[in-house]
Amino acid sequence: MIANVSQSTSTHPSWTSQAVQPPSLSAIDLEALRRELPVTRRKHAAGQYLYRSGQPFRAIHLVHVGSYKICDTSTDGREKVTAFKMRGELAGVESIGLDAYACDVIALEDSEAWDLPYPAVMKAAVRIPELQEQIHTALAAEIRCDRTWMLLLGTLAAEPRVAAFLIDIAARHARLGYSAKHFILRMSRLDMASFLALKHETVSRALSHLADLRFIEVQRREVRVLDVDGLRAMACCAQAA
Amino acid sequence: MIANVSQSTSTHPSWTSQAVQPPSLSAIDLEALRRELPVTRRKHAAGQYLYRSGQPFRAIHLVHVGSYKICDTSTDGREKVTAFKMRGELAGVESIGLDAYACDVIALEDSEAWDLPYPAVMKAAVRIPELQEQIHTALAAEIRCDRTWMLLLGTLAAEPRVAAFLIDIAARHARLGYSAKHFILRMSRLDMASFLALKHETVSRALSHLADLRFIEVQRREVRVLDVDGLRAMACCAQAA
DNA sequence: CGGCTGCTTGAATACCTTCAATTCATGTGG
DNA sequence: CCACATGAATTGAAGGTATTCAAGCAGCCG
């Protein structure tokens, strides 16, 4: 059995290098932000909405505790999880320039987000060019992150796709100072499958096979990484069918 | 045979509503931009690079004539076309905040782009809050466009995917005042396939079948749309396998 | 004209999905 | 406190869709 999920600082430096860069504002800026902006904090239980498609867009949101999933819906009702957001990452930036939010954001666990009123952000940005720069950078990073996943989903078969997902989650945990070798997946297999453009049975099978290969140990949502290089080799080399 | 590719203004208003919104700066801003910025114009023949991954990032680029493809490459060499850019659309925004461009951009035909030096853009943005707003909006629109395609590629089977692509291209043509019912695809089947996460044979078969259904006429890169609603029904309703 | 590249089409295969059954964890009510 | 209902995850077998491999055709440029 797998136990003792630690939050110890990762000692493996290479984790950070391979990650799909998650867009975020650094801790330094946050201090400035809190001074400059009327930040309000909101807590959400698992399953609760941070915002819903169609609600008036007024703020962007910085995840402070927990994690959220971003869900896009087409006009005819097809849905897909297009991103997961963890501490330090931004939600809502995709809706800038619109009157209403363009997607749903749902907490995966007990979570907290800081609302940054968009007009206030804009006003602050005029006064603080560095903030301006940071916003551009965050938005651009978001685009690069999406493009990286488009590339991944478009060129990798199911199993390497799942491997790449685990590597990404692990790297993001490491960035936050948590263990990259042992973590809890906060999303269901269904959410993972949606994000990876697979069926949940396929995700399940892929995880089982990665465990058979001794690359990971997995028990429901608890994952222990046994062979990072094995995972990497699978995520990088295997082609799509 | 299909002939007489016109550039007449589209008279079908519904074309514009369904499109995957392409990020762009409106014509109004362009006038301001030209006054404020040291814009330089560059021409490219088909196959030439607007910029390459690794080159120092200095400017964002507004497509003024022709069209380009955006190609992302993974560390291990897998490649994918992640976007196509037409007149009025921006390239290079994904590289904001980096020292070097993050992807390749290649002309699909004789094309011209305006280089907007990024530092100058930033300085102008400080003086002109509207420009600031426009930049945010353009970046956010880019994110939404990517998300929409992630959703499409993740939830639609091959044939509806191709149908959705044709609808998108048609809508973007309409927006530019060209015919939405008759146009030339500027990219190869290989590029389309890469963008749609399919093989070029599959794209070819899908196009042939759409022609069998009398939704379109197609001859190599020349496409004539016969039944928009048929295409729409296919793009919206059919689920992924 | 010849060689080349891009596109199309066919047949066989492989991979993921679909359908179905089982196990496991959780929480609710008797 | 246990029984039971519920939802999530796993696993097996059958099937379908896109891919792979292969061949042929058409346009284009030297």
Plain-language structure description:
The structure is a homodimer of 241-residue chains. Chain A is of the alpha+beta class and 241 residues long. Chain A is 40% helix and 22% strand. The first copy, chain A, has seven helices and eleven strands. Chain A has helices spanning 27-36, 118-127, 129-155, 158-175, 189-196, 200-212, 228-237, and strands at residues 40-44, 49-51, 59-65, 67-73, 79-86, 90-91, 104-107, 111-117, 182-184, 216-219, 222-225. In chain A, helix 2 (118-127) crosses helix 3 and helix 4 (158-175) packs across helix 6. Chains A and B meet through strand 5, helix 2 and helix 3 of A and strand 5, helix 2 and helix 3 of B. The structure holds a DNA duplex (30 and 30 nucleotides). Chains A, B: It comes from Luteibacter jiangsuensis. Chains A, B: InterPro entries: cNMP-bd_dom (IPR000595), cNMP-bd_dom_sf (IPR018490), Env_Response_Regulators (IPR050397), HTH_CRP (IPR012318), RmlC-like_jellyroll (IPR014710), WH-like_DNA-bd_sf (IPR036388), WH_DNA-bd_sf (IPR036390). Chains A, B: This is CRP-like protein Clp.
